[in-house]
Write a structure and sequence with these properties.
Thioesterase family protein, alpha+beta, 4-hydroxybenzoyl-CoA_TE, HotDog_dom_sf
Length: about 160
């Protein structure tokens, strides 16, 4: 089975902040769309959510803002699944600026931002975490790859 496709987006004028670059809220928006694509790619799509009233909830995230992104920039987001257990999944998104709306990042491209997330599968009727269906858990397992060097970091204390 194949991996997840890149998510593409273009930076809109209203996403630019008072410093003249992409506002942090919109990095989160684009990463959120990448999580939606991950859900679709693992069987947790809108049909699943409507029929089961179960969904994936992000419970922890860590974002790194690495480079400025300007208005009109074409973005590509790569998603990596780092692991899944009965009720939770850990994954990352890496955002790149690419030359065109459907372009792929060069093999040596540097990410402009990254995020690492922990999500829990929730039964919304019961109001609690519940196990993934076997097909979803199997898809997460198929997609699992080694973590990038930056995964698992935390924010260090400041002096």
């Amino acid at each position: 089975m194949t991996g997840l496709p890149l998510l593409h987006s273009t930076v809109r004028p209203e996403w630019i902040d008072y410093n003249g670059h992409l506002s942090e809220a919109f990095y989160v928006l684009v990463f959120g769309h990448a999580t939606d694509a991950l859900m679709t790619g693992t069987g947790l799509d809108s049909g699943y959510r409507e029929s089961t009233r179960c969904s994936l909830y992000t419970v922890e995230s860590h974002i790194r803002f690495l480079r400025d992104v300007s208005e009109g920039a074409h973005l590509a987001v790569r998603t990596r699944v780092l692991g899944a257990a009965a009720r939770k999944a850990r994954f990352t998104h890496e955002m790149y600026v690419v030359p065109g709306p459907e372009a792929e990042p060069a093999p040596d491209a540097a990410a402009v931002a990254t995020t690492e997330l922990l999500a829990v599968h929730v039964d919304q009727q019961a109001g609690r975490a519940t196990e993934f269906p076997e097909s979803v858990r199997r898809r997460f397992t198929e997609l699992t790859e080694p973590p990038p060097h930056w995964a698992g970091r935390s924010i260090p204390a400041v002096a």
